[in-house]
Amino acid sequence: MTLAPLPPAPAPGAAGAPTLLSDDDLQAMRDWLEEVAVARSPSTWINYRKEAERFLIWLGQQGLALRQVQRQQVNAYLQLLQRPPTEWINARRAPRGHPDWRPLAGPLKPASQRQAMTILHNCYDWLLLHERAGVARNPFRRVRVPRDQSSLFEERMLSAAALSQLQATIEALPRDSLRDYHHYYRARWLTALLLIGGLRREEVVAARMGDFRYDASYDVWTLQVTGKGNKRRAVTVTEELWEELRRYRRNALGLDAPPAPEEDAPLIFTLNGKGWREPRPIGGKHLYRLVKTLLARAARQARDAGQPHLAEELLRASPHWFRHASITGKLEAQVPIEDVAEEHGHVHIGTTQRYAHKRVGLRAKRLSTVSLLPKSGPEPA
Question: Which residues have a Cβ under 8 Å from the Cβ of 197 and sit 6 or more positions away?
Answer without folding.
Answer: 223, 235, 237, 241, 326
